[in-house]
Amino acid sequence: MAVETKTEKDKDSASLYRPVFCRIVRISDLTPTEKLFRIEMPEGRDLNQKPGQFVQVSILGLGEAPISVSSSPTRRGYFELGVRNAGALTNALHQLKVGDEVGIRGPFGTFFDVEKFKGKDMLLISGGCGLAPMRSLIQYCEDRRGEFGKTFVIYGAKAPADVLYKDELEIWQGSDIFETHVTVDNIPQGTCYDGHVGLITTLIPPLEIEPEKSIAVVVGPPVMYRFVIMELKKKGIREEQIVVSLERYMKCGVGKCGHCTIEHLYCCLDGPVFWFNEISNLRGAI
Ligand SMILES: Cc1cc2nc3c(=O)[nH]c(=O)nc-3n(C[C@H](O)[C@H](O)[C@H](O)COP(=O)(O)OP(=O)(O)OC[C@H]3O[C@@H](n4cnc5c(N)ncnc54)[C@H](O)[C@@H]3O)c2cc1C
Ligand code: FES
Question: Hey, which of 260, 264, 265, 270 would you mutate to test ligand 2's pocket, going by the most ligand atoms within 8 Å of its Cβ?
Fold first, then answer.
């Protein structure tokens, strides 16, 4: 029988805490405040993330922030992070150039359990920055198209300028793999836009779905969950068919500091991805 030695154990726990320095190989602007970073691990290794997991990104001297992996593990040799310039760490990240290095710990957290989604119709519903983790699942469905039933991509942003991954949304809209619907809450005066206007909840009633064989995945700002889930229930989708990904303030990312608790759960370990029926009764979860 293989016995785990102390050295192996130490090495394992060290890799939870010690960042691996990885090279930025491509940076693209998504919006004026969001950038997409393509990153390579040393020696061409894969990150081996599952869709929906996050990494802790660090810059020496500044600290760390949890960021969802935005690319699918089916895209090998690199991973991508869509990052909003929100504060000290992410602002410093936005100043980096191709060739610079960042520290990466992870991948951490629960994930979209694609094995359980096989053969199901999928409603992939995201709002705002929620498209960052959702993109990893959308790309996965794109690359493993035969494994899932009818797949809807539903996305809402505040205004046209805030729409993330515009080029890919256009590709998904033109593709026969997905039925894609995009909306914005409003159009600022003087903006040229001819798409759908209205809250994301307005996109759900017209969808032609078969509720008994559907899974809904919902990721977005806190305010979105309650209303989107209300609409899903009206379509006949039950709580146990809904998966959500939640954001909490995080520090360690590995269940040690207690910053991310939702009652008895650690969002970094037990989440960020949850079946809705498992958390719907927890105070402050949604
Ligand atoms: C699991 C997880 C996945 C995430 N994925 C992404 C991602 O893919 N892309 C992305 O841009 N951001 C993501 N975030 C949010 C990101 O981690 C925070 O914005 C982070 O604090 C930025 O660090 P900072 O030092 O730049 O800003 P800070 O100085 O830490 O904070 C900037 C502002 O954001 C607020 N804030 C910090 N953390 C959170 C939080 N968890 N929820 C709500 N508000 C917060 C602060 O109160 C402050 O107003 C994710 C967070 C979690 C927990
Ligand atoms: S972030 Fe430290 S316990 Fe979850």
Answer: 260
30 class by beta-carbon count within 10 Å (0-12 exposed, 13-18 middle, 19+ buried): buried
Question: Rounded CA gap, 258 and 268, in Å?
Answer: 9
What angle separates helix 166-174 from helix 131-143, to the nearest 10 degrees?
A: 40
Query: Ligand 2: distance of its center to the CA of 75 in Å?
Result: 29
Q: How much is the pLDDT for 176?
A: 93
pLDDT, tens digit (0-9, with 9 covering 90-100), for 58-71: 999 999 999 999 99
Strand-pair partners of 40: 23
pLDDT < 70 regions, the chain? 1-14
* Shortest-distance atom of ligand 2 to CA 255: 3
Number of domains in the chain: 2
Expressed in angstroms and rounded, the spacing between residue 66 Cα and the centre of ligand 1 is: 7
Pair 126, 232 in one domain:
yes
Residue ranges around ligand 2 (CB below 6 Å): 250-253, 255-260, 266, 268
- Report which ligand 2 atom has the smallest distance to the Cα of 257: 2
Residue 221 shares a structural domain with residue 121: yes
Ligand 2 centroid, distance to 282 Cα (angstroms)? 18
Q: In the structure, which protein residues have their CB atom closer than 6 angstroms to any atom of ligand 1?
A: 54, 65-68, 82-84, 86-90, 129, 132, 247-250, 272
Q: Are residues 135 and 40 in the same domain?
A: no
What is the rounded distance in angstroms from the CA atom of residue 204 to the CA atom of residue 231? 7
Is 81 in contact with 36 (CB distance < 8 Å)?
Answer: yes
CA distance 239 to 277: 5
**Structure confidence at residue 104 (pLDDT):** 97
The residue whose C-alpha atom lies closest to atom 38 belonging to ligand 1 is 249
Residues of the domain holding 87: 6-108
